[in-house]
Amino acid sequence: xxxxxxxxxxxxxxxxxxxxxxxxxxxxxxxxxxxxxxxxxxxxxxxxxxxxxxxxxxxxxxxxxxxxxxxxxxxxxxxxxxxxxxxxxxxxxxxx
Amino acid sequence: xxxxxxxxxxxxxxxxxxxxxxxxxxxxxxxxxxxxxxxxxxxxxxxxxxxxxxxxxxxxxxxxxxxxxxxxxxxxxxxxxxxxxxxxxxxxxxxxxxxxxxxxxxxxxxxxxxxxxxxxxxxxxxxxxxxxxxxxxxxxxxxxxxxxxxxxxxxxxxxxxxxxxxxxxxxxxxxxxxxxxxxxxxxxxxxxxxxxxxxxxxxxxxxxxxxxxxxxxxxxxxxxxxxxxxxxxxxxxxxxxxxxxxxxxxxxxxxxxxxxxxxxxxxxxxxxxxxxxxxxxxxxxxxxxxxxxxxxxxxxxxxxxxxxxxxxxxxxxxxxxxxxxxxxxxxxxxxxxxxxxxxxxxxxxxxxxxxxxxxxxxxxxxxxxxxxxxxxxxxxxxxxxxxxxxxxxxxxxxxxxxxxxxxxxxxxxxxxxxxxxxxxxxxxxxxxxxxxxxxxxxxxxxxxxxxxxxxxxxxxxxxxxxxxxxxxxxx
Lengths: 96, 475
Description:
The complex is a heterodimer.
Chain A lengths: L4 H10 L6 H22 L19 E2 L9 H4 L6 E2 L2 E5 L5
Antiparallel strand pairs in A: 2-3
Helix pairs in contact in A: 1-2
Chain B lengths: L2 E12 L36 E2 H13 L7 E2 L2 E4 L9 E4 L6 E10 L2 E14 L3 E3 L6 E5 L6 E7 L6 H17 L12 E11 L9 E4 L4 H20 L7 E6 L4 E4 L12 E2 L6 E2 L2 H9 L5 H11 L4 H8 L2 H11 L5 H19 L10 H12 L5 H14 L3 H8 L7 H14 L1 H8 L3 H14 L6 H11 L2
Parallel strand pairs in B: 12-13
Antiparallel strand pairs in B: 1-10, 1-11, 3-16, 4-5, 4-15, 6-7, 7-10, 8-9, 11-12, 13-14
Helix pairs in contact in B: 2-3, 5-6, 7-8, 7-9, 9-10, 12-14, 12-15, 13-14, 14-15
């Protein structure tokens, strides 16, 4: 197995996912098989192939620097579980 | 053991575009909370960011002014981390292929030029603002700033003293203000700086363990925090201790750095190319066009002031440190024959009053022509240099023309010999002791008498003339 339970726990923590022990085992299994598949791809000789950053062959899609109207604040805060005085309200995260 | 300090700076600068980097919300500072937001910058599912061309152009201009190379190919990546100031849970940034690399800023250390390398400059989006009120169990989030275009400028670890770090920052700010890509207002957060600092035995080529410093609200704070940290690390090393690699927060009030205890210091950003944004390909023609739009930069201007106007290096340096100041000076010089005189007035009187009142050059209420008029009034003898200072201050307070001020206040210099003679005689009569002293050979006594005449005329007498008249009267 390429992916250990510890790695699953680490990644799940970074993604704020809470997994049961069974789920962790399953994730370790399925993520490992994905990496195995990547190993198969690695067998290909890609010496002369430039790295691909994007799958569609387009570049330089820009917009002009023009201001358009933003959303009304009621809309902005509509999905917020908690709000106060126009702010989003979240658990205290100050580092001290 | 002797130690060498190694400092690197990471500077974030907000670009002066009108709209955000990936959406059309305004970038204006200070709006009502959460009113400059749209589905794109709020990170709603299914939206598509589209890159602001001006942001790319400003970033390229900054890179060119900082002597960087601009690779042809560049792309955006997602930097993943959970933090409430980022509604998408990732920041669109650039990882392995930044817009620019390998530049430098030249500073002057002990009268000699020193180059501080720039490792890279990349374009990214700003995060929102978090507010932590005292004693509350929650934090508040304002997402107006989310998505404002930022460039991050990462220096090489070439800086050796806190003083050099301060010089680097000042130079960087000056250059970015010259090319008008950012207003660099630290107090509004449009320029922010993090530093890292380590010590190593002098002569060693290995880096010591570095400490990152945050919460630096001014250039002065940058310098003070580095000075403190340099001292702290030296003391630990001298006692045989080891430096812990950590992030520390500058406490401005106490003048110390404190370890930042962070719940989430994973630093595991899992960068990957952003599939929503296509690569940027910058051809040479585009770069050349942007290069041709750059104004004369501070170093070139300084050199020109020395060569063309014959100014001392010090004057040229002070005058070109701010574009607004340089513009004001050049306006004056284009209408007045003696650059050094203009420089003296701008550097002493004008900067003096600006410092005293905390005002900026663009808040000066009078025009360069008005200063030139005043200088010409001194040349023609209409006012004395001393009175001119009074007039100058009045111009600052009211923005009025010097002629108007002189007329209103009756400040015209008295050059009428008869009138001055009358006053001089009166002063001589009233000050027999000084007259006696002068006659005994005390030159100083004459100065006193001149001063008395000036006092009688409320500073309006032509001092050279008073001198001459007094000498004649006292034989």
